[in-house]
Design a protein that fits this description.
single chain; alpha/beta; 11 helices
């Protein structure tokens, strides 16, 4: 749903109808604040999803307060909301790692992941982390992402692999699947503009070889994937998500 961040606050009901009309059955939430999803309580938002034949197996949240001082109040409220709307995964959208500390900074964040994952588990949810590209910077012979994968409990901590950011960092998702099989139950399917790699494009129009990636979905452990498109829409966000959905259904699944 982050793709539609400009439209959602204006008319959440109308946007959900358009998402369903575009061919989607699942969405990923974000933006839960002050106890609501775009003005709706979790129960109201779940009803809206159901009315449009949609489910939200994952949602994006943050753990900044917990990482800074161990405060769990916001986390617990977010986890409760994620459970109410029928979520399966409590996904951290991004982490503020103390990169000045190198590997130790990533180890500290990995330890935080394990702790937050326990909180999620107690509410019947699974924990996941969504990457960007900073995690792939080399720290000697390894990367911060390697630290996350090796320093977390694989029975508690899952990973939502953003395929665009992996490619943007110069890495290959297939290499990660082989090195860490089964750790990536969710993907962000987001294509890279061929001429301007800092921009997105509709799935199938860019430079990422999604056919090769989807061929290894079992190795990765993928159970859900979400189309994300942050910029460079053609002709607009709703039109873009439909183009991507049509391509995926015709060529990838």
């Amino acid at each position: 749903l982050y793709t539609l961040r400009d439209e959602l606050p204006k008319n959440v009901q109308g946007v959900m109808e358009k998402v369903a009309e575009a061919g989607y059955k699942e969405v990923e939430t974000y933006g839960f604040a002050d106890g609501k999803f775009w003005g709706l309580t979790p129960k109201e938002f779940k009803a809206l999803l159901k009315a449009n034949g949609l489910k939200a197996p994952s949602g994006h949240y943050l753990m900044d307060a917990f990482s800074k001082n161990g405060n769990t109040d916001k986390l617990k409220a977010d986890i409760e909301a994620a459970a109410i709307i029928g979520g399966k995964y409590f996904t951290i959208a991004g982490a503020h790692v103390d990169t000045k500390k190198g590997i130790d900074g990533f180890k500290k964040t990995a330890s935080d992941f394990n702790k937050v994952a326990e909180l999620a588990k107690n509410a019947g949810l699974k924990f996941a982390y969504h990457n960007h590209d900073f995690e792939f910077k080399k720290l000697g012979d390894i990367t911060g992402y390697d630290v996350f994968l090796t320093e977390t409990d694989k029975n508690l901590v899952n990973f939502e692999l953003d395929l665009y950011w992996v490619a943007r960092s110069g890495n290959d998702p297939l290499t990660l699947f082989k090195k860490y099989p089964g750790r990536f139950p969710m993907w962000h399917v987001k294509d890279m503009n061929k001429a301007k790699p800092e921009q997105n494009t509709e799935v199938g129009k860019g430079s990422i070889d999604f056919k090769a990636i989807f061929a290894e979905k079992k190795l990765s452990g993928m159970k859900h994937f979400f189309v994300e498109h942050e910029n460079n829409y053609n002709p607009n966000p709703i039109g873009s998500i439909k183009t991507s959905c049509d391509y995926i259904k015709a060529n990838l699944i």
